[in-house]
């Protein structure tokens, strides 16, 4: 396996929000300590219920937002907010593809213009001819036809628009792509075409993917490594096969039990999580999952479990035995 292109250590993003009528503030722990690596040619998926901090994590990795604390390095260089030139160079290494291919493309620009724009803005030394050559080449690489170069986004289907969004993200030759629910707005049959394209492009350019998804059946096919998040904190992480085959955290087990399995022999009873997902403004004391956990004890209600060591890690005092 290659060396990591990105290493994050204990990343946190807290938001101060107003509370009540008397000017008090409260802290939303949107991301509360995530450590992980992105490796060229591999896909790390971030999974968890809505509000667990997936988009907050994506915003930090793409440098749209800065962490409250924690560090991350890209290509061995520390990311420090404020160092503009370094930021710009490093920013080009990380690009993002959003969920909604309808909202993310400028309807007044042709596909050619949309693809050439990142080069115009970030690589002004590249000539107009070369810009166009690269954009036309990219149109073909993502499986569109040459005549699409002069067409407008509204002339394309959802799947084609997502191909255009991927093409635009690749124009600056990034090393990391953040894929924020890239196929969840697409029909099932189109989803697999776009995922196949992403796999081909990953192989061709040795890209590291950070794949944000709430859909575990997609993650099962697409990811190499997984982080399971709960209320802003990773509760389990490791190689996808390990985590999916031997889930150790009860939350992971519950999430997986709700995912349809193709193989009837491996279907299992769905674990129904009791209670609502607590607010990140009011994270339960002890293990954040304890009010919904069928294994919770006094210890879980009082102490927060640390992440274990090793390549398959989990934060639980009473882990599952690993069968799934
Ligand atoms: N700017 C902000 N100010 C205050 N709270 C925020 C802010 N951004 C996010 N949050 C809160 O942080 C928590 C995590 O949000 P985030 O968008 O990262 O979750 P998510 O896992 O991406 O959810 P979804 O799947 O619904 O997009 C949520 O409770 C959200 O309300």
TrEMBL record:
Residues 6-256 form the ABC transporter domain. The lineage of its organism: Bacteria, Pseudomonadati, Pseudomonadota, Alphaproteobacteria, Rhodobacterales. Pfam families: ABC_tran, oligo_HPY. The keyword Kinase does not apply. It is a peripheral membrane protein. One of its GO terms (molecular function) is ATP binding. The keyword ATP-binding applies. Its main location: membrane. It is found in: Cell inner membrane. This is Dipeptide ABC transporter ATP-binding protein. PROSITE patterns: ABC_TRANSPORTER_1 (PS00211), ABC_TRANSPORTER_2 (PS50893). Keywords: ATP-binding, Nucleotide-binding, Transport.
